[in-house]
Amino acid sequence: MLCGGSRVLQHLSDHNHHNSIGLGLGFCGAKIVQLSSFFLRPSQAMAKSHHFSRKLRQRMISSFGSHCRTSGEVPILHNCFSQREDDPELPVEGLSPVSGGIVALGKFDALHIGHRELTIQASRIGAPYLLSFVGMAEVLGWEPRAPIVAKCDRQRVLTSWASYCGDRAPEEYEIEFASVRHLTPRQFVEKLSKELRVCGVVAGENYRFGYKASGDASELVRLCEECGITACIINSVMDMKQGSAKRDSGDSKDRGQVSSTRVRQALAAGDMRYVSELLGRAHRLILRVRTQDMPSERMISVPRSSILNLPPGIGIYKACLLLVGDESSVPCTVVVDTSNIHVETEERSQE
């Protein structure tokens, strides 16, 4: 009933933050079992798990303030705790960082396959960028919610898109939403052209922009032409792999396209295979772990306040792996409850 394919990747942080490290959990293809009908078997001693736990504890202590090494797809997460989720954009002197580039327009919370398609099209025209708006929730009075992708993990995802974009990873450029909220559609395009000096834009067919979302894709094309920049409108990436029940997200704007709303709903349902299809990758959950968060040799337990992005729904996720630095992986089970995230390494046969 429980299938494999999940991964849990652990990475050391080089930031001096209460002996913290970053823990990335990549769930892929796991099924959920409700907590009310399942409990973990008592732990048994295992040499490799003990060795693994000792290594983990040693690294948490000895790596205090050191730089982590990575290989393959293991990301560097040293900035996880040194950069706030709401950091403003850095001041830029002279030309805009996106000057001469092609910017993809949208809300890039999930960095799903629809967003990836925007960057692919942008890369076919020029240097690809994602134009992201920060501070929208605060300005619009939305209830705060955890991001789907942790801020410190976004660069890893964008780097993984390089193979789709002519071996060039798209870069992300942030603009404070408050600075553009009241711009008319024309003023917004003029900002892109005259202030940011972009050469072109790429947007989805349902893209809305300008004050109170008064501009649509056709107006974007017209205004860009008047301002002398290229505009490319692409069809939405549709969610074709699921039944009609899953395609109905309850969003009035939803016509069956891949969306961040669908990703959030799939995570809430614990359907990690569906999440992976929408993201085009395994979901990676980033946790902050301290020495006191390891109550036993084989257990890591952290409160939800230590989660840097959106976890899957309440339940037990099996067939996961835990990896510390360059050490070999150890099978584990991940338990998500209303207050905490628990990671328990599992038994494996002696080699």
From TrEMBL:
<feature type="region of interest" description="Disordered">
    <location>
        <begin position="243"/>
        <end position="262"/>
    </location>
</feature>
<keyword id="KW-0547">Nucleotide-binding</keyword>
<keyword id="KW-0934">Plastid</keyword>
<dbReference type="GO" id="GO:0009231">
    <property type="term" value="P:riboflavin biosynthetic process"/>
</dbReference>
<comment type="function">
    <text>Catalyzes the adenylation of flavin mononucleotide (FMN) to form flavin adenine dinucleotide (FAD) coenzyme.</text>
</comment>
<protein>
    <recommendedName>
        <fullName>FAD synthase</fullName>
        <ecNumber>2.7.7.2</ecNumber>
    </recommendedName>
</protein>
<keyword id="KW-0285">Flavoprotein</keyword>
<dbReference type="GO" id="GO:0005524">
    <property type="term" value="F:ATP binding"/>
</dbReference>
<dbReference type="GO" id="GO:0006747">
    <property type="term" value="P:FAD biosynthetic process"/>
</dbReference>
<feature type="domain" description="FAD synthetase">
    <location>
        <begin position="180"/>
        <end position="239"/>
    </location>
</feature>
<keyword id="KW-0274">FAD</keyword>
<keyword id="KW-0808">Transferase</keyword>
<keyword id="KW-0067">ATP-binding</keyword>
<dbReference type="InterPro" id="IPR015864">
    <property type="entry name" value="FAD_synthase"/>
</dbReference>
<dbReference type="InterPro" id="IPR014729">
    <property type="entry name" value="Rossmann-like_a/b/a_fold"/>
</dbReference>
<keyword id="KW-0288">FMN</keyword>
<comment type="pathway">
    <text>Cofactor biosynthesis; FAD biosynthesis; FAD from FMN: step 1/1.</text>
</comment>
<keyword id="KW-0150">Chloroplast</keyword>
<keyword id="KW-0809">Transit peptide</keyword>
<dbReference type="GO" id="GO:0003919">
    <property type="term" value="F:FMN adenylyltransferase activity"/>
</dbReference>
<feature type="compositionally biased region" description="Basic and acidic residues">
    <location>
        <begin position="245"/>
        <end position="256"/>
    </location>
</feature>
<dbReference type="GO" id="GO:0009507">
    <property type="term" value="C:chloroplast"/>
</dbReference>
<dbReference type="Pfam" id="PF06574">
    <property type="entry name" value="FAD_syn"/>
</dbReference>
<keyword id="KW-0548">Nucleotidyltransferase</keyword>
